[in-house]
Every structure is written in structure tokens, then in C-alpha cells.
Design a protein that fits this description.
The complex is a heterodimer of chains A (119) and B (113).
Chain A lengths: L4 E3 L2 E4 L5 E6 L6 E8 L3 E9 L2 E4 L8 E7 L2 E6 L8 E8 L13 E2 L3 E5 L1
Parallel strand pairs in A: 2-11
Antiparallel strand pairs in A: 1-3, 3-8, 4-5, 4-9, 5-6, 7-8, 9-10, 9-11
Chain B lengths: L8 E5 L4 E6 L7 E8 L6 E6 L4 E2 L4 E4 L5 E6 L8 E9 L14 E6 L1
Parallel strand pairs in B: 1-9
Antiparallel strand pairs in B: 2-7, 3-4, 3-8, 5-6, 6-7, 8-9
Classes of the chains: A mainly beta (119), B mainly beta (113).
Chain lengths: 119, 113
């Protein structure tokens, strides 16, 4: 499996522009997570989905951020309008529902991230 | 989720065992201890997890104290590729609605040649 795929890997844009980050989770995974990482705030969860339905979006910073998962193999994180303080590395992760009885880990598999710079 | 405390940084000589401590004194009975690491410029990577028994896999060993208030991640023979930030996370697992991982500041482990 190719793992979690994110695009683009790097994005440089100007303040006020719309930015769309894309994620393809591992095939068959039930959960998809969006995280953001900055030096100041570390790694923080923005939103996550189960079977394409948003479960927890309490980490989304403000209305400028939106996330969608139109199908099991694709998700987007959109920032409109973008601001310099949105500059960060955005990670997508996916995981599989694992029954407790299996003793397997409900591991989250992370993508390589998208480094966003807003000028 | 219970809060964890880890040293900010540690060094370890290549080939030696790296022992990374984590305190989680407020852990509750249904919370697991998870370890992830993040190598520079990459996404975090799962290492190991446990509830109360010691665990071992191909990457590491996890030792959890009997009172579960602390744990130690052991990398038995550290290599330069183990240089990374290591995160100890305590969370309720296998519980719908509690799938989120809350990352702290972690321990920056540097393997010295």
C-alpha cells in the first residue's frame, strides 16, 4: 500500500487566497484525521471523520477552515481566506476500526504532510 | 485524557539502549499508554501501546509500572535513525468518539555516533 497520500507537499500562497489541501487515506480505513503542526502550538487535531462523517471538529480554528470527505478515498481541507498565521505543516492520518478483543493497535497512519506558507 | 510529562530532551550513544520515561500520574483505569515518534520532516509514526502489562514488538519495549502512573519506552539498540521526537500519549482506546490523539511536547531523542 502507498500509505496516506497528501498533496501538494508544499504550498506558498499570498494572504487572502484560497488554499485547498488534499488527502487520500489508506484503502479500507474507516477514520480520517486532519492535524496541524506549528512551532508554537505543536501538533494539534483539527477534525476527524468516521465513514466520511465528521465526528469532532472542535479543533477547527475558525470559520475560515472547512473540511470535507465526499467519499472514502478522498478528503479536503480548505482555508478561505488564508492568513499568515495559518502557515504550518498540515498532516492527514487514517486508521481502521479495531475490535478491542483483537489486541491490535488502533494505529493512526500519518501522511508526509503539506507545508503551507502564507505570505 | 490524562496529561503526560516527558523530559524535553535526551541523548543516547549509538548501539546502547535508549530509555525514555513518561509520567502519567492521573491515568484512569480504561486509558492506554501509546508511543509515537516523529522523525524530522515526517509525519508521526506509531511505535507501541499498552494497558498494564509490559509489551514488546519489533521496534521497542514498553514497561508500565504496577500502579500505571509512569512508563518507559525502551529502544534496545539505538541507531542514528532513531533520532526523533518521541511522544507519550494516554487515551481511552477502542472507544467510539475517543479516537483523537492529543500530542504533548514530547522528548527530543538524539542518538550520538
Amino acid at each position: 500500500d502507498a500509505g496516506v497520500i497528501q498533496s501538494p507537499r508544499h504550498e506558498v500562497t499570498e494572504m487572502g487566497q484560497e488554499v485547498t489541501l488534499r488527502c487520500k487515506p489508506i484503502s479500507g480505513h474507516d477514520y480520517l484525521f486532519w492535524y496541524r503542526q506549528t512551532m508554537m502550538r505543536g501538533l494539534e487535531l483539527l477534525i476527524y471523520f468516521n465513514n466520511n462523517v465528521p465526528i469532532d471538529d472542535s479543533g477547527m480554528p475558525e470559520d475560515r477552515f472547512s473540511a470535507k470527505m465526499p467519499n472514502a478515498s478522498f478528503s479536503t481541507l480548505k482555508i478561505q481566506p488564508s492568513e499568515p498565521r495559518d502557515s504550518a505543516v498540515y498532516f492527514c492520518a487514517s486508521s481502521l476500526i479495531v475490535p478491542k478483543s483483537s489486541k491490535a493497535a488502533d494505529t493512526q497512519y500519518f501522511g508526509p504532510g503539506t507545508r503551507l506558507t502564507v505570505l | 485524557d490524562a496529561k503526560t510529562t516527558q523530559p524535553t530532551s535526551m541523548d543516547c550513544a549509538e548501539g546502547r539502549a535508549a530509555n525514555l520515561p513518561c509520567n502519567h500520574s492521573t491515568i484512569s483505569g480504561n486509558e492506554y499508554v501509546y508511543w509515537y515518534r516523529q522523525i524530522h520532516s515526517q509525519g508521526p509514526q506509531y511505535i507501541i501501546h499498552g494497558l498494564k502489562n509490559n509489551e514488546t514488538n519489533e521496534m521497542a519495549s514498553l514497561i508500565i509500572t504496577e500502579d500505571r502512573k509512569s512508563s518507559t519506552l525502551i529502544l534496545p539498540h539505538a541507531t542514528l535513525r532513531d533520532t526523533a521526537v518521541y511522544y507519550c500519549i494516554v487515551r481511552v482506546a477502542f472507544d467510539f468518539g475517543n479516537e483523537k490523539l492529543t500530542f504533548g511536547t514530547g522528548t527530543r531523542l538524539t542518538i550520538i555516533p
